[in-house]
Specification:
- With 379 residues, the protein is of the alpha/beta class.
- The protein has a single domain (36-374), classed as Glycoside hydrolase, family 3, N-terminal domain (TIM Barrel), CATH 3.20.20.
- It is 44% helix and 8% strand.
- It has helices spanning 2-24, 37-45, 59-69, 86-98, 131-137, 140-156, 189-206, 242-249, 277-287, 302-305, 310-320, 337-350, 353-374, and strands spanning 47-49, 75-78, 106-109, 111-113, 116-117, 161-162, 209-210, 255-258, 293-296, 325-327.
- It has a 6-stranded parallel beta sheet.
- It is globular, with a radius of gyration of 24 Å.
């Protein structure tokens, strides 16, 4: 009995030691690694998120302002659900901007005209005809006269990004998300470019950034990427790149928005464009020579969420070459989504040097855009 007492005591002590270490997390495999503050802030600058709420003092906008202030969020997407009055929208936007004076957030809206206008005449905002109506019955100079007051009014409300112009070609009359909603100017790329130029230049005068969309071309699909993933490999034509080529060559693309579209150009790439290194880094950056900020369409659209989580989609988009990740946080808004995305992306980047370098590149590119186009401080 006496001989066994010491080994038993030692064994018992070892068990207690291991239990103690487990309690502190040192032996747990599921403990998240410590996230570097610089890395977390860089990722935050890459996130543009939607939110729930219509007034500055509500919990959704208030929390978002705090997330902007601590660097978890670098951009805000305002949707129709956030609009109750122009005064309330302006107050929210001013609060978002004031939350981070040294690195003001990108505050974006989809105010294309026609069916796609988050701000309406019913609350006192000047409405604009659809792209199809302008392309059919007007000319680019008339479009300028209409886009200029729209852009000035957006700037007056505190917006600094309008996600347009749509430069998809009107090639498929049955297209549910482009043609049927009258979002395309024409089936002729030169006409599309001329109207797009009017859109971009009037917004620039007002101090707003724009983003031609939806690269590499949403004009021929019969499916809505909000619901499912369209494959345009058999219908897409190289002519759909013409407006991008011209706008990029004329330095009229602050950003380019990439759509959720499968385009196999003969190389077997079956990835959605937003997750495809071949289309984002190879085609848009390499072949078309675009050096600005590349932004994703909403990563929570059905086209992606059918097969993956938003965390997985975000990491894959960054690897592909996307700089700014849009997460509309709809239809089931989660106020903690930004923090969750930062943790998920950072956890991958900690052990992946290439991913971390991509994040650094994107954060730097967004910072340059804010300084050079929006006059943000050089910090």
């Amino acid at each position: 009995m006496t001989r066994l007492r010491l080994p038993l005591l030692l064994a018992g002590g070892a068990v207690l030691l291991i239990l103690g270490l487990l309690a502190t997390g040192l032996f747990r495999r599921d403990v998240e690694p410590e996230i570097d503050a610089v890395l977390a802030r860089q990722i935050g600058q890459m996130l543009m998120v939607g939110f729930q709420g219509t007034a500055q003092d509500q919990s959704g906008p208030s929390r978002l302002a705090r997330q902007i202030a601590d660097g978890t969020v670098g951009g805000v997407l305002v949707l129709g659900r956030n609009v109750e009055s122009l005064e309330a929208v302006e107050a929210m936007n001013r609060a978002f901007l004031a939350a981070s004076p040294s690195s003001p957030p990108l505050i974006a809206i989809d105010q294309e005209g026609g069916r796609i206008q988050r701000l309406r005449a019913t609350i006192g905002f000047p409405e604009t005809p659809s792209a199809a109506m302008l392309g059919r019955y007007a000319d680019p100079e008339t479009a300028r006269d209409l886009y200029a007051p729209m852009a000035e009014a957006l700037a007056g409300l505190g917006f600094n990004v309008n996600f347009g112009p749509v430069v998809d070609l009107d090639l498929e009359p049955g297209n549910p998300i482009i043609s049927r909603l009258q979002r395309a100017y024409s089936d002729d790329p030169d006409t599309v470019t001329d109207f797009a130029r009017a859109f971009v230049e009037t917004h620039r005068v007002a101090g707003l950034l724009t983003a031609p969309k939806h690269f590499p071309g949403h004009g021929t699909t019969l499916l809505d990427s909000h619901e499912t993933l369209p494959d345009i490999s058999e219908t897409w034509d190289d002519i759909e790149l013409a407006p991008y080529r011209q706008l990029i060559a004329q330095d009229l693309a602050d950003m380019v928005m990439v759509g959720h579209l499968v385009l196999d150009r003969g190389d077997g790439d079956r990835l959605p464009a937003t997750l495809s290194p071949g289309l984002v880094t190879g085609l848009l950056r390499g072949e078309l020579g675009f050096e600005g900020v590349i932004v994703s369409d909403d990563l929570q659209m059905g086209a992606l969420m059918e097969t993956m989580t938003v965390e997985a989609a975000s990491v894959a988009a960054i690897r592909a070459g996307i700089d700014l990740l849009i997460v509309a946080n709809y239809p089931r808004p989660d106020p903690g989504l930004p923090e969750r995305l930062v943790r998920a992306i950072a956890s991958e980047a900690i052990s992946d040097t290439a991913l971390r370098e991509r994040i650094e590149e994107s954060a730097a590119r967004i910072g340059t855009l804010k300084r050079e186009r929006l006059g943000a401080p050089d910090i």
